[in-house]
Amino acid sequence: MQKILMVILFTSSICTTVSTWAGKDDHIIIQEAASNQVKVAEVKHLKDETAVTLKGTLLKHLNEDHYEFSDGTGVILLDIDDDLWKASHIKAGDKVQVVGEVDTHRYKPTDIEVVKIEKVMD
Questions:
Q1: Of 21, 32, 53, 47, the residue nearest 110 (C-alpha)
Q2: Is residue 82 part of a domain?
Q3: pTM to 2 decimal places
Q4: Cα 87 to Cα 92: distance, rounded to the nearest angstrom
Q5: I need a surface site. Which of 12, 56, 111, 113 has the fewest CB within 10 A?
Q6: Residue 16: inside a domain
Q7: How many domains would you assign to the chain?
Q8: C-alpha neighbours within 13 Å on the C-beta side of residue 53
Q9: How far apart are CA 19 and CA 66, in angstroms?
Q10: Which pairs with CB-CB distance under 8 Å and at least 24 residues apart come from 35-42?
């Protein structure tokens, strides 16, 4: 009986840890970000995992999933997964709206983990 209890406790602790790592679902981020449109200059003052919407210009592709973005108040790095990027048909120089989460780091600049990107017209 004790072994079964130990297995149950161990399994539940692993499940709790995995769900903590996973973070919020994309649809939750999109809902929260809808009412939180910010400027790049404001992002550095926000908490990690804050859902945000940004509008501006995609400046350039830096490497792998990393892109440079500006809205006129500053420049920030966007982390856009390859599958999301390919589906968007967006290129450097396009005006875009980005929805994602603030991702703060200890030893590198804050960036945005993008969950949705779309081209916008002026």
A1: 47
A2: yes
A3: 0.78
A4: 15
A5: 12
A6: no
A7: 1
A8: 11
A9: 25
A10: 39/71, 39/73, 39/74, 40/69, 40/70, 40/71, 40/73, 40/74, 40/75, 40/76, 41/73, 41/74, 42/73
Question: φ, ψ for residue 80 (rounded to 5)?
Answer: -115, 115
Q: Is residue 17 part of a domain?
A: no
Burial class (CB in 10 A: 0-12, 13-18, 19+), 77: middle
What domain range is 86 assigned to? 23-119
For residue 12, CA distances in Å to 23, 52, 93 come to 17, 32, 47
For residue 101, being part of any structural domain is answered with yes
Q: Which residues contact 93 (CB under 8 A, 6 or more apart)?
A: 57, 58, 59
Identify the CATH number of the domain in which residue 36 sits: 2.40.50.200
Q: What is the pLDDT of residue 5?
A: 45
pLDDT tens per residue, range 69-99: 999 999 999 999 988 888 888 999 999 999 9
Nearest to 34 by CA among 60, 22, 50, 52: 52
